[in-house]
Amino acid sequence: VFGKIHFEILNKCYLSSIGYQEDDILFELDIERSRYYDRKKESIMLFGIVFWASALPHYEELIKAVRSA
Question: What is the mean pLDDT of residues 35-64?
């Protein structure tokens, strides 16, 4: 539901080379500070879930290979 906002928050907070300030992000996304913090927390959690869901199978295979060597 908030995919675009999640993307924009992650992009502006952590990926952009511009160095957005919090007030700039609030203005550009046109959201209240409390909503921003809620969405930012969700964004980080969702990113972590997606990252680890894609990374864990690789690490599991790596661990098995190391144990069997």
Answer: 93
